[in-house]
């Protein structure tokens, strides 16, 4: 199967799909869709994904799929040689991973996106920052991180659901939490410091998927540096005239 | 497998699971958790679902599961005799259904549930309405209905993705749109009238799952009357 992955490495779910492919030796062609340049709104890309979001995949030039969790489930089951722990065949284990993936949308995803967009990234998309929306999103995110500590990380192993090896749920949720690297350091600490188990789980997940995890995050950390510089420039009192 | 379902029929994802079980002759015990009485917040229910939400499921008194899409996938895969069209074994068809189920959360679900809760149902549990939040959710709802028409419903087939038979995605999303019955008739018409394809798909899904669809949705129509009473008392 010839696989094309349409991604922006600045996008959390894009990174999860890219890392999964690399970690499992799945060959693919990466097509960069740069969100900051509005490339997701082009008619060509709309033909790939009518929702105009990344990531998306195309198989053999004819089967298209979007929504990162659907993509991860598809890749885990349609490609040979994928280790069982990513998305187990056992219906009970699989159901628990599905539960974490579903829970993610309205909790970690919603909270994290709300914080990062409304404190940092909105201007990149021509929108104003929104401190009130950011505060609401932070509440949701904190409550969700608390749930990861009290429920999802219960059990013997270091990964979600007490598993001893990472699943696609760990990959998806950790890539989402990584996005907090983009916000002001004080804010990042305020959000994550209370949750030692979460921080350990993020590190364990990264370790388990090296070197692919770090490799896919290189562009993301470059983006972080650019944003930090811009934030420092704005804070030094320079004003744009005209 | 002995199946227990913890549900409130006022909840859209609960209804989807109940209809699915009835359609597929899956035997279960229904344990009613009344949201308007705050029963989901009891310590007993927290043992079943630490997220304190419905629906939740228990199998053989030991395996617990929450999140309706995870439950629907589990039931489709774990019980014998479930027709393939609900959640096909073919990985490509299955992936497309997964895509709809995932899209649903931040789109139709967020829009519809938010609108109905913040403008109507909050009253049932004695909470204040939040019309600003309702207005935001209405925008998301309208955009989502438009996407269902332009992306998910095709020329061929009556169901999502151009399928000729309903899947768990049809069931989940139609139960969500049915929640709009709780709105004032004029608002419901205003939201749904522009979307003829959506209305037809709702009817087709309802017809394909009778008599259970109407049976399980009965409570929604009772609530409509109750809300009218509460509003006229003010």
TrEMBL record, chain A:
<dbReference type="InterPro" id="IPR040077">
    <property type="entry name" value="GST_C_Theta"/>
</dbReference>
<dbReference type="InterPro" id="IPR010987">
    <property type="entry name" value="Glutathione-S-Trfase_C-like"/>
</dbReference>
<feature type="domain" description="GST C-terminal">
    <location>
        <begin position="90"/>
        <end position="230"/>
    </location>
</feature>
<comment type="similarity">
    <text>Belongs to the GST superfamily. Theta family.</text>
</comment>
<dbReference type="InterPro" id="IPR004045">
    <property type="entry name" value="Glutathione_S-Trfase_N"/>
</dbReference>
<dbReference type="InterPro" id="IPR040079">
    <property type="entry name" value="Glutathione_S-Trfase"/>
</dbReference>
<dbReference type="InterPro" id="IPR040075">
    <property type="entry name" value="GST_N_Theta"/>
</dbReference>
<dbReference type="Pfam" id="PF02798">
    <property type="entry name" value="GST_N"/>
</dbReference>
<protein>
    <recommendedName>
        <fullName>glutathione transferase</fullName>
        <ecNumber>2.5.1.18</ecNumber>
    </recommendedName>
</protein>
<dbReference type="GO" id="GO:0009407">
    <property type="term" value="P:toxin catabolic process"/>
</dbReference>
<keyword id="KW-0808">Transferase</keyword>
<keyword id="KW-0216">Detoxification</keyword>
<feature type="domain" description="GST N-terminal">
    <location>
        <begin position="1"/>
        <end position="83"/>
    </location>
</feature>
<dbReference type="InterPro" id="IPR036249">
    <property type="entry name" value="Thioredoxin-like_sf"/>
</dbReference>
<dbReference type="GO" id="GO:0004364">
    <property type="term" value="F:glutathione transferase activity"/>
</dbReference>
<dbReference type="InterPro" id="IPR043377">
    <property type="entry name" value="GSTT1/2/3"/>
</dbReference>
<dbReference type="Pfam" id="PF13410">
    <property type="entry name" value="GST_C_2"/>
</dbReference>
<dbReference type="InterPro" id="IPR036282">
    <property type="entry name" value="Glutathione-S-Trfase_C_sf"/>
</dbReference>
TrEMBL record, chain B:
<feature type="domain" description="GST N-terminal">
    <location>
        <begin position="1"/>
        <end position="83"/>
    </location>
</feature>
<dbReference type="InterPro" id="IPR036249">
    <property type="entry name" value="Thioredoxin-like_sf"/>
</dbReference>
<dbReference type="Pfam" id="PF02798">
    <property type="entry name" value="GST_N"/>
</dbReference>
<dbReference type="InterPro" id="IPR043377">
    <property type="entry name" value="GSTT1/2/3"/>
</dbReference>
<dbReference type="InterPro" id="IPR040075">
    <property type="entry name" value="GST_N_Theta"/>
</dbReference>
<comment type="similarity">
    <text>Belongs to the GST superfamily. Theta family.</text>
</comment>
<dbReference type="InterPro" id="IPR036282">
    <property type="entry name" value="Glutathione-S-Trfase_C_sf"/>
</dbReference>
<dbReference type="InterPro" id="IPR040079">
    <property type="entry name" value="Glutathione_S-Trfase"/>
</dbReference>
<dbReference type="InterPro" id="IPR004046">
    <property type="entry name" value="GST_C"/>
</dbReference>
<dbReference type="GO" id="GO:0009407">
    <property type="term" value="P:toxin catabolic process"/>
</dbReference>
<dbReference type="InterPro" id="IPR004045">
    <property type="entry name" value="Glutathione_S-Trfase_N"/>
</dbReference>
<dbReference type="InterPro" id="IPR010987">
    <property type="entry name" value="Glutathione-S-Trfase_C-like"/>
</dbReference>
<protein>
    <recommendedName>
        <fullName>glutathione transferase</fullName>
        <ecNumber>2.5.1.18</ecNumber>
    </recommendedName>
</protein>
<feature type="domain" description="GST C-terminal">
    <location>
        <begin position="90"/>
        <end position="230"/>
    </location>
</feature>
<dbReference type="Pfam" id="PF14497">
    <property type="entry name" value="GST_C_3"/>
</dbReference>
<keyword id="KW-0216">Detoxification</keyword>
<dbReference type="GO" id="GO:0004364">
    <property type="term" value="F:glutathione transferase activity"/>
</dbReference>
<keyword id="KW-0808">Transferase</keyword>
